[in-house]
Amino acid sequence: MKTPLAVQVDDLTVAYNYKPVLWDIDLAVPEGVLMAIVGPNGAGKSTLIKAILGIIKPIAGSISIYGKPYEEQRKLVAYVPQKGSVDWDFPTTALDVVMMGTYGSLGWIKRPGQKEKKAALEALEKVGMLSFKNRQISQLSGGQQQRVFLARALVQNAAIYFMDEPFQGVDATTEIAIINILKELRKAGKTLIVVHHDLQTVPEYFDWVTFLNVKKIATGPVKEIFNDDNLTKTYGINYKVAINK
Amino acid sequence: MTFSEYFELLFSDYTLRTITLGTAVLGAICGMLGSFAVLRKQSLLGDAISHAALPGIALAFLITGAKDTNILLLGALVSGLIGTFWIKGMTSKTHLKSDTALGLVLSLFFGFGMLLLTFIQKQPNANQAGLDKYLFGQAATLVEDDVRLMLIVTGISLCILLLFWKEFKILLFDADYTKTLGFNTKFIDVLITFFIVLAIVLGLQTVGVVLMSAMLLAPAAAARQWTNRLSMMILLAAIFGILSGVIGTAISASQNNLSTGPVIVLVATVFVVFSFIFSPGRGLLFREIRFRNNRKDLQLKKTLQFMYGIAKTHDNISHPHAIRILNNFQGFTKKSLQQMEDKEWITLQGQQWALTHKGFNEAMNLYNKTHD
Lengths: 245, 372
Known about the structure:
The complex is a heterodimer.
Chain A: E1 5-16, E2 19-30, E3 34-38, H1 45-52, E4 60-65, E5 68-69, E6 77-80, H2 94-99, H3 103-106, H4 114-126, H5 142-155, E7 160-164, H6 172-187, E8 191-195, H7 202-205, E9 208-213, E10 215-221, H8 222-225, H9 228-235
Parallel strand pairs in A: 3-8, 3-9, 6-7, 7-8
Antiparallel strand pairs in A: 1-2, 1-4, 4-5, 9-10
Chain B: H1 3-12, H2 14-39, H3 43-52, H4 54-64, H5 69-93, H6 98-121, H7 133-136, H8 144-163, H9 165-173, H10 175-180, H11 185-203, H12 212-224, H13 230-254, H14 260-278, H15 284-311, E1 321-322, H16 334-342, E2 346-349, E3 352-355, H17 357-364
Antiparallel strand pairs in B: 1-3, 2-3
Helix pairs in contact in B: 1-2, 1-13, 2-3, 2-8, 2-11, 2-12, 2-13, 3-5, 3-6, 3-12, 4-5, 4-6, 5-6, 5-11, 8-11, 12-13, 12-14, 13-14, 15-17
């Protein structure tokens, strides 16, 4: 039996003003993979995620999640934005931020109750942040903030997770903690799509990879397509020396 | 009139009571909604909106020829909203940054408003006198109907705030994420913005176009200093707003020739300055105190570390040593040694010191503290 497609992107084109940021992207992500999106700065990695999630309106193209339009499948999708995209001096606590993950299933007006709080505490525990639950978020370190963001997505209990550079600016301990959680999620059958910068760790962390530089260069299993040829095509310089597998 | 006379009058004098109630309610709604403006980093939006309201007032007068407050404020609301959506449109559709858009709309609308005001003043219509009160505000012109309108709007915005609390909070913190959860962020955004515009328009009569943004921002900025909870911040901002209104009115009523609006704004500013200096968590004073204490503590630990270096070469760590051998180390005084004894790190006997077990352990763990 063929694995179903978790995410399918057809002919996606995004432009800011006149300059295309993403050009005619076709992408099919099978269920249960831990996929890295790699590419140079300005390649449109974050934009691709944002366009799939409807945060940015594409000029053309269609997105489907498990065969249906994204709008109908929102509950299956969780998003971990870049840490730097919010103001961490906002007056709230770690627990409160994680609780926000439950807002989607609550819908309008209804307030989170005991059930939501319990789920949030469990998620905080999973990322090793339970003892920081009442900490004001500005008093968390960068790695801790990233874990809080991850916990907020975990609370959504989604099938597909989109993450925008979850390893950015975190120390080695946090990086290992995060990748272990991601691998656990994959084991549980979830699909993870991660914007990633560190090419060295791609073969170790991920089983699927997409090379992106405005156009899609290649997508597939890391073992088959993570090679010098694709790296050179994506980054424009010879990567033979840089990557020692 | 002195302060105490003022407060006696407050209970007997109808006009004074109306004005005080009006400025208090205005302070409350501005503090509440101003918190949103501050947290969205749209502090300057309030300034642009209040200036943008001016041509609306003038046009409403020109069209109706009457000086009915409600109609003038309706005009202000319409032109304030138009200004706001121009700003939003400009920032989302062009390359202009929001500060440029704010500046453009502010000066364009204010200039147009001033033009209309001078035009109106040249007209033979005797009714026109007093429109310029919207520039700097004139609390004395508040009547019961105005206060009632303020109360109603404040009540409605409070209900909306409580109803959409969760949605407001998440939009303020992380708009993109809110969108992915399926919320209509545009709707929440318009709702917040609409009530901010409404609060500004309500304040025009009392505080005026020019100073209105301070009324919106000062209580919120002060409140942020005292708490790390959004609900508490909004509550405190409302309280600071109320106090600014009441105290400002009291001061201006007890002195001659002090216009109420500017005094209220000054009182609100006093709250800001006080909060920035004296708040325990974020205030400058306590930060300085913490900084100094840390430095002092570090000095002591440096001395302790030196003593540890000597003591650990002996079998008995509490073996006494002469204070003199610390001489080649600069970081100690009689006082600091005394402080170390108070902490039970060392014992002092005459000209000798000896490390205690507590001090020894403290020194040993100085550099391998696991930090969270």
